[in-house]
Amino acid sequence: MNLTKLQLISLVSTAVLLCFLFVLKALGYTVPVTKKGQDKDVDQSGILTEEIVLTQARGSLDSSQLVWLAELDKEKEIAATVANEAEVLKLISRTWYEYRNFLVSGYYAKKAAELIQTGEAWGIAGTTYGAAFGNSLKVDEKVLAAQQAVKALEKAEQLQPDSLQHTLNKGLMMLELSTVDATVMPMTGVRILQDLDKKFPDNIIINMTLARLSATRSGDLKKAMPRFEKVLALSESQNVSDNILLEVHYFLIECYKEASNNDKVLFHYDKTIELSKENTSMQDKMKQAKEDYIKNNL
């Protein structure tokens, strides 16, 4: 059975990282909440707010969940110190995350960050809102989540200016926001990432992020190829996880298929087979894909 490009990329997702959680699904364009030319700061009738989200979320809980949250609310009210109150807010955020309401989880993570004012706390709030963006199917919720994520990540940047991760995540969230709000131009997020690339040209995460965007969002494998190759070159002198290398080789299979370079395609198939030895199911699929490629192309 031939593995299509989409199937290969889907296999990658089972082995790959972090980052921004949200960070790298290929999202289709959705209709913007704000029309072109409309002031996004204007108060619009029916616009979604976090207060509305909180009310709706509590209305969807069962009795045991409500009792648990009521207990946490009591703990928050009697907290003796700001640090104690922040810890309870973190627990409330984690509880909502377990309930899979990532938008409300982000709201309470933000409340904790407002108390303790650390870059780490604001970064967690930002990435939690990012998870809300990635998991929501409603455009208004996506807009709210992305807007709050960007604000939180800007706070994180201010408090930890030496941490490029917050800036990287902000750039990605600006890109995501541009897919649901026409007042936000995609180049706003792209420029943030390009500026990071200029400052840190040999950074693995930045190169991987830009390569993924070219491959999955714009579908430009020709543009993605040199960045993926650069990651392989950097891996000679930097510590790069097998998961990232596996992803790189997956994408390079597709890059070199498009370039009609059979030798390179087979080379990267062999690398994926070698790197997926801990996942026999994936390894078997890659072996079969290689055999099919040889049968159909050589």
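(the above was protein one; protein two follows)
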Amino acid sequence: MPPTALILGISGQDGAYLAELLLAKGYVVHGTSRDHEASSFRNLTMLGVRDRVTLHSASLNDFRSVIRVFDRVKPDEIYNLAGQTSVGLSFDMPVETFESISLATLNILESIRFLKRPVRLFNAASSECFGNTPEPAGEETPFRPRSPYAAAKAAAFWTVANYREAYGMYACSGILFNHESPLRLGRFVTRKIVATAVRIAEGGGDHLTMGDLSIARDWGWAPEYAEAMHLMLRQDEPRDLVIATGHSIRLEDFVDLAFRELGLSWREHVTVDPHLFRPSEIQVSVGDPRLAETTLGWRARTLVEGVVAKLIESERRTPR
């Protein structure tokens, strides 16, 4: 029998790319959404896999809902990619953020423990847990979260570690640094930059409003990060790993790359609005992926210049 994977949060960027990857490897793929009949699953449709996955309605904040879908699917592997994903939005919605990330993760772990089936769990942690990282952050770097989102992700990370140690579960967290793709929603800054720059280049506008351009991030390519998630569940023993490129650039330089790729000068089209600054911001975020390379044989192939070029290529093909 082919292995069965259950992707919690299958409608998002990472869930869609992971579904595509696992289907190509011969998996039977299931996924959850709060209301699978009302959801559009746009990303799965864009990748051409919408009709090849089985979808279920489930609220991860509700223990009974979680255990019901686990018992129905009987997965060999579970990928927890669900929850509120916006750092900025978490300042406006801290309670929903905590419930959708930390409480949901606890419900997942308790459901696995209750059903007593041999399941492997991948949990998507976040580089935001580290806070500022003037030196590349590795697996032993302490967490210093600076947003409700980061605090919720840190709580989920330690809950996974606790259940692994207390109950012998195969459960691990990938500490994922920023990774982008054309499937990103427009509220994410990289998509906002690229979409606006392409529109300006095509004569459809002349202005981009940004927040703090001095921040630096470690940006990778989302499909490659889906590969790392799968590889983490193929190891003999579960291990938490940093997944990153190991390189970071300032947001200003990301903007410059995007505009120069289109033959434009960003200084002629970009203004900074202090109202877009977050209450608490990470100035520098960069990861140390060396352990992932030695453990998984995984290495980021697309650095930020390639990420920008691919995003622009995709945006130019998008119908207006």
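Reviewer note on protein two: The radius of gyration is 19 Å.
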